[in-house]
Amino acid sequence: MKKLLLAVVLVFYAAILFAQQTTYPVNGSFDTRPGQFAFTNATIVVNSSQTLTNATLLVKGQTIQAVGSGLAVPKGYVIIDLKGKFIYPSLVDAFTGYGLPEATVQPRGARQSIFVSTKKGAYGWNEAIRPETQVKNIFSVDSKKADDLRKAGFGSVNVINRDGIARGISAAVTLNDGADNNVFLKDQTAANYSFSKGTSSNDYPTSLMGSIALLRQTYYDSQWYGKQKEEYNISLEEFGKQQNIPQLFEVDGWANILRADKIGKEFGKQYIIKSTGDEYQRIQEVKSTGASLIIPLNFPKAYDVEDPSEARNLTLTQMKAWEMAPANPAALEKAGIKFALTAFGLENTRDFWANIRLAIEKGLTEKQALQSITEIPASLLGISDKVGSLEKGKVANFLISSDNLFKKENIIFENWVQGKRFIINKIDVTDIRGNYNLNIDGLGALTLKITGASGGSVAAIERVGVDSVKASAAFARNGDWVSINFNLKKNPAGNIRLSGFLTVASPLVFKGEAVLPDGTAGRFTATYKEAAKETPKKEEPKSILAMGSVIYPFGAFGNTELPKAENVLIKNATVWTNEKEGILQNADVLLENGKIKAVGKNLNAGDARVVDATGKHVTAGIIDEHSHIAGSGGINEGAQSVSAEVRIADIINSEDVNIYRQLAGGVTTSHILHGSANPIGGQSQLIKLRWGKAPEELKFAGADGFIKFALGENVKQSNFGTGARFPVTRMGVEQTFVDEFTRGKEYEKAIAVKGNNVRRDLELDAIVEILKNKRFITCHSYVQSEINMLIHVADSLGFKINTFTHILEGYKVADKMKAHGIAGSTFSDWWAYKNEVAEAIPYNGKIMHNVGITTAFNSDDAEMARHLNQEAGKAVLYGNVPEEEAFKFVTLNPAKMLHIDGQVGSLKAGKDADVVIWSDNPLSIYAKAEKTFVDGVAYWDIEKDALVIKTQQTEKARLIQKMLESKSSGSGTQRAQGIAPRLYNCETLENYSAELNESEHAH
Predict the structure, then answer these.
(1) What is the pLDDT of residues 865-888, one digit of tens each?
(2) Hey, CA dihedral for 48, 49, 51, 52, is it positive or negative?
(3) How far apart are CA 900 and CA 702, in angstroms?
């Protein structure tokens, strides 16, 4: 009777809740009196720091009236006794797409040649910038999704339109059902951003660096827009209005956390960052951003490694990420980083609790876990005055559970949202544990034993006598209904299925249908006999599986500790100084504090470690003037004819294994260039190959800025594209340069006028730097006529060309290059690989060198850079360039081109200790780099490399065994598919946003 009365009250209350709308008319009578409930005798977790025992929660309508122990229950409240039960705040998810239609992303393919927005209205030029989008205008309650989230314990969520680079404003809603306007907690929680252009049909941007540049330009446009009156622009208007609310940035991976934070620092913003859960790989760098994070729990499944041939496909990065990702929340907690946890990204919301318990098993504290799913997300969204804890005046969002939320056996019974009851599991389920006499038609007498938590969750069958047998049973229960499936192995063999209901309460009796293995249907009766004697389970000690360590970089050839600089005396070597001293025999090189201290004979070691280099050669580190390694998200931004605004500096990838491989070839410095998809490309970045360091630490400090220009087939899109992007002829290429520098000069004049409100243009900023000799051109070039054209344009418009790269017809224009002081960075012996190099010759380098041009050989290729010493040797083969001069083609000469010959390129006291010890003459095909020092740190050591390989083979074997154990224990797996590193060259085109989308859906 009590249960019936409570049910009637709750149904009535649900009805009056629906009626509580003041602006909507009701066709009929209605009652607006709020429901009043007193939840008594419960353990109430007010927040992560306060738990009350034997306490009471008073709720009136949608609001918490009081929480405490010993509270008097006011008259008129329905009392619900929750003795032995727990009450928690409902969970808050700070990152969802709940209630929004899924965006339709364009499939990958050729660019569409849509240069500006086709959106109707006074909006900005690029559809990826859509701050005018507001969730409150497009949100609608999704009953099915809300039900899924409520079952996991969530009561409120932040709704984000995940479309575009500037995505507009998100909103916080509850997971109540009913009318849309009744669920809003806050209609403006944050302005949202990403590096993905989403559904934008515009060509630009195609790359990560393009996305970064577009967002930076939008910030500057917004600043300008607020000071002008000529243009009305809805997008910029809304963008400016959103700068005083929280800023939320979705990124993919820890490196993009750092990139987003760099933008934030430039514009005085501290982003809340939603990442992908790999922060443990660079925890200190992530901490240094000061950002609060939103972290997913979609840990990778173990790979199915039973087939050795498939297991070989996996990278060490993939394998270690599987093992270490569940420990990411614990690592963040230990580092003192503020973070919320989200269910976003899970294949099934039901996995949320299993994964959060796994995180706790890996070191996350329960207190932090609770904070990260209640108080912290509420605080980040500015709704902590409404949800996230149980306090007077807050919204009545709370859970009723059987136990501590984080216990595996815990059951969430009810989730109350805005004071409305949602039943997840029945709270008043009869305890059916015990031993039963089980009679099945055609089988005779058996014993049914029901045990387990929550009034019965585990079943077993026993038969005594001649055919005695014990069997465990698959047991499912829904209220008073049970389903039991078991196999007696013999008499009969096969599965026996029972399905029935509780028909008598005292003593307990179940009756229903039975189906035998042969398909015969009959009836069964199970009558309670006695309480089951549960043998306490002996807790088997969990096998403690070794956990690997974070390595830097997080992949092949990474180290748990980075090598350190040390003082080293290299003795008795053949030393190639690249200075007036030439090649010294039986000489020494002393490295101290990251610099070359001295070069000579019989040097005093002092406290330096001595390396005996008898019979070996020592040189300056190789410098690759033209490289495309260590980039991410695309090396070309080719959607427009000019992309001077993009910067390779924004996309440096410190994890690229080619850094290590090239150190093994003696390379210490690389000039990372934009590709050649347009006449004026992006700004380049000079790096030192400091393997294991973070991206910013790779950058060559104090170096001059460079920019990539290009001529020829690539820039006019001879072999790709739609033909719609200007230019499509060589005449058009020339006009592009003329137009851009003409605009640059006008821009320079305009910004020089004091008080002039000039829109800052990142593209033209780079052009002005060229005009002021603060940024220098390296130009991709092949054909004599085009080279002459650019020299003429530069003369007429007053800018200088620093270097022609490739320059395979340099031998035809060497006199003009010499007269203009232009350097030549070429290939040693490439020719005839496309039409515009038909007249290339292997004597090109020799001829330019003889004319007096600063000449270098470059790689433009990740593999070739591993043997640039051999490429230099070809200068001896083709033209008899003296060995010492030939080796300068890959050391001192590129240093001069890049204006860093004061720091590197030769062995001279005071220069950086970028030094290589070779096993043989460095121009020989038999020479191996045995040690490569960068700033006095041996980032490559051939002996240590053998140990690293052996150690990592052992590590992979350990991880494979761990994955096999995981599979055998019943955990899910995924196919062992490797991830190949992306290799870039001048012509590589990419659709960064489409690849992000594919990657997300692949998981």
Answers:
(1) 999 999 999 999 998 999 999 999
(2) negative
(3) 9
